[in-house]
């Protein structure tokens, strides 16, 4: 999907490290469509510079002394809807903080390599520039408040699997999933497989956060585990997630390190196509907010082979209307709905166990 930019994107770079401020600024300034209009060395400094400079996009380090990135993000949200991209370390604490930041309103995040000098690598440079450009056109959505207490779960083990719901999402997905998964009742008549474009080390934190909020069980998928009714399985970062049937007709998950598809691993298309090759009748596919067209080939195969019901998130509720748009353009989408209507549409199709 091609994006045209008529004016330069004005960026504020926030990091307590002078080295990082310079590296990120130099990377962004190297692109003719981006202009770094200022830097800030602390959360307080970031708030003052934001009021004064009114940037189009802010890059914000998560771990800063004093006011950290999460608190700064919350305060920035009070000033307006400037898109924010977080910079995060690849650690457990960093992953948990990143998922919290996405829930608090950040558009996306960029991981800092373990060797900080690798920030200048071509792959990382391209990622930073691309994500800033995407963020500049993204629609910062409302913070969601869906809550549920997993201690209230009443679900019983061993219910036969009769419906399979497949969800694919990318930019804006972690927040969007919070508006879908926690609204699923614990006696839902389905199992859920979710592909969220996210690097290794972050999907476990995403699954754990959603699990704390939800009545259904949410977990990071494991290789060869059976797919159970009332469970939501999140594809691990850097692994494709597929489904297959055993000789005893049991549906299981397969994780692979096959080559990325469309630069994605996990790939939504890979998951959807794997299910399209299984003789399973009751399938629902949901394509939500995200850049690009991942999932559009898979929904066509699911419609043809499984007569699946296809749901797409509507443009107004998407942070980025890329993946749903591509799915809609295939002509096989049955339902286009705002984000807040997705869980309801799923339940209309799959229902609950009495």
Question: Mind explaining what this structure looks like?
Answer:
The chain has 11 helices and 14 strands. It is of the alpha/beta class and 354 residues long. The protein has 2 domains: 9-137, Rossmann fold; 150-350, 3-Layer(aba) Sandwich (Rossmann fold). Helix 4 (92-104) packs across helix 7 and helix 8 (268-276) packs parallel to helix 9. The protein is elongated, with a radius of gyration of 20 Å.
What topology does this entry show?
Blueprint: E1 9-14, H1 18-29, E2 34-40, H2 43-53, E3 57-61, H3 69-79, E4 84-89, H4 92-104, E5 108-112, H5 122-137, E6 164-169, H6 173-178, E7 191-196, H7 203-213, E8 217-220, E9 231-234, E10 240-245, E11 251-256, H8 268-276, E12 283-287, H9 296-306, E13 309-313, H10 323-328, E14 335-337, H11 342-350
Parallel strand pairs: 1-2, 1-3, 3-4, 4-5, 6-7, 6-12, 7-9, 8-9, 12-13, 13-14
Antiparallel strand pairs: 10-11
Helix pairs in contact: 2-3, 3-4, 4-7, 8-9
Quickly describe the structure:
By secondary structure, this protein is α/β, with parallel strands linked by helices. Helices cover 32% and strands 21% of the residues.
């Amino acid at each position: 999907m091609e994006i045209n930019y008529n004016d330069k994107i004005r960026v504020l770079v926030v990091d307590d490290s002078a080295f990082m401020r310079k590296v990120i600024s130099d990377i962004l300034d190297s692109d003719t469509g981006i202009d770094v209009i200022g830097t800030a060395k602390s959360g307080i400094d970031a708030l003052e510079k934001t009021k004064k400079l009114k940037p189009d996009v802010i890059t914000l380090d998560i771990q800063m002394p004093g006011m950290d990135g999460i608190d700064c993000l919350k305060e920035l949200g009070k000033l307006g809807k400037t898109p924010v991209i977080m910079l995060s370390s690849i650690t457990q604490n960093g992953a948990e903080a990143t998922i919290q930041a996405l829930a608090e309103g950040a558009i996306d995040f960029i991981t800092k390599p373990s060797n900080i000098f690798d920030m200048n690598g071509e792959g990382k440079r391209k990622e930073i520039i691309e994500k800033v450009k995407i963020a500049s056109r993204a629609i910062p959505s409302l913070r969601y408040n869906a809550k549920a207490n997993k201690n209230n779960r009443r679900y019983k083990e061993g219910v036969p699997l009769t419906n399979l719901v497949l969800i694919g999402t990318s930019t804006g997905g972690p927040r969007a999933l919070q508006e879908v998964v926690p609204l699923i009742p614990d006696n839902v008549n389905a199992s859920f497989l979710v592909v969220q474009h996210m690097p290794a080390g972050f999907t476990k934190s995403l699954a754990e956060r959603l699990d704390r909020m939800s009545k259904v069980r949410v977990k990071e998928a494991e290789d060869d585990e059976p797919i159970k009714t009332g469970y939501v399985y999140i594809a691990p970062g850097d692994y494709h997630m597929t489904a297959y049937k055993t000789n005893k007709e049991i549906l299981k998950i397969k994780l692979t390190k096959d080559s990325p598809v469309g630069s994605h691993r996990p790939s939504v298309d890979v998951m959807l196509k794997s299910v399209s090759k299984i003789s399973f009748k009751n399938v629902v596919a949901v394509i939500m907010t995200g850049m690009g067209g991942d999932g559009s080939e898979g929904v066509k195969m699911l419609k043809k082979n499984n007569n699946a019901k296809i749901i797409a998130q509507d443009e107004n509720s998407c942070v980025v209307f890329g993946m749903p748009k591509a799915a809609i353009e295939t002509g096989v989408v049955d339902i286009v709905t705002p984000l807040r209507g997705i869980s309801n549409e799923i339940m209309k199709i799959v229902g609950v166990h009495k």
